[in-house]
Write a structure and sequence with these properties.
Elements lengths: L4 H14 L2 H24 L3 H20 L3 H23 L1
Helix pairs in contact: 2-3, 3-4
Length: 94
């Protein structure tokens, strides 16, 4: 795991107070996509540890997105998103 994790969490915590919720979701999606692309490159280049680290980061982002779903107010889309995040998470670890 990265040694910069506390810095990343502090940056995320600061962003939650200043960035609109919709923008936060977009930023998380962008981060997950970036990690998956880096993981794919690492796989092609045979860098197993880097692949692992990038896929873990992508999985953590998906878990954060999934845990923030508001089932009380989200209606059908909340269930759809939950199922989507579950499917993508399973694909990452398989």
């Amino acid at each position: 795991m990265s040694s910069h994790k506390p810095e990343q969490y502090r940056a995320y915590a600061a962003a939650t107070g200043t960035v609109a919720k919709t923008r936060q979701v977009v930023m998380l999606y962008d981060g997950a996509i970036t990690c998956l692309r880096r993981g794919e490159i690492a796989i092609r280049e045979g860098r197993i540890e880097e692949r692992f680290n990038q896929l873990v980061k992508a999985s953590e982002i998906l878990m954060a997105l999934q845990s923030s779903i508001d089932f009380d107010n989200g209606g059908e889309i909340a269930t759809i998103l939950h199922d989507f995040y579950t499917h993508v998470s399973r694909r990452i670890i398989s």
